[in-house]
Amino acid sequence: MAIFKRIRDITAASVNDMLDKAEDPVKMINQFLRDMEAEIAEVETAVAKQIAMERRFEEQRDEAAALVKKREEQAMKALELNNDELARKALSDKKEQQDRLNTFSSEYDRAKALADELRARLDQMKDEYLKMKGRREMLVARADAAKVEKQINHAMGSFNTDSASRGFTRMEEKVRQMEAEAEASGELRKPKASIDDELEHLGDHSVEDELQALKAKLANKE
């Protein structure tokens, strides 16, 4: 039946083909599941109608079977009452009901076979849907991981280590230059010695005098 034409597409190969062509695999997976849900709902409606038809034929078959049995009993009772004409009418109607019974039995068998087939296909679709739904989380996680890896690779590809190293070297040179300039500025800002300080320094001969005294003492020992 045409309503089941998509069942052939519910395979791993078709899913992979769809994902290969999709710009966003996650969106495509979600759309695929929504399509499956819609298809399952459509099939469920068709199965419900077929089951209703199966039951209707079953009721008509049982009604005809009951009438066949009833007419035969009525014919027997008419014969017991020596009423051949009434017995003939009962048997004539029995024959019509038997024809109806045969027709409804055949229709019921066909309807039941089709309903059973539809049920099996519906179960197949639901099983496939549950499998796809179970795989969704795994596929979404893999897609997210691939996106992160792609972003990292892109960032690493655009990251220029040599350029950064040269930039740091220039900054180090600049910092050393700033330090030298600060040191030189400090030297320039030192206060000059006053005249009193210089004179006091010139008059400080105590160490030199003591040194000369030690030398003289050493010379006398010799």
Automatic annotation (TrEMBL):
Disordered as annotated region, ranges: 175-207
Spell out the coiled coil positions from the record: 33-135
Q: Which domain of life is it from?
A: Bacteria
The entry's protein name is Phage shock protein A
Tell me the protein family, please: Belongs to the PspA/Vipp/IM30 family.
Residues crossing the lipid bilayer are none
Q: What keywords sit in the KW lines? A: Coiled coil
Q: Which Pfam families match?
A: PspA_IM30
Q: Which organism is it from?
A: Ferroacidibacillus organovorans
Q: What PANTHER family does the record point to?
A: MEMBRANE-ASSOCIATED PROTEIN VIPP1, CHLOROPLASTIC (PTHR31088), PHAGE SHOCK PROTEIN A (PTHR31088:SF6)
Q: Which InterPro entries match?
A: PspA_VIPP1
Any keyword Chloroplast?
A: no
Keyword match Cytoplasm: no
**Which stretches are tagged as biased composition: Basic and acidic residues?**
186-207
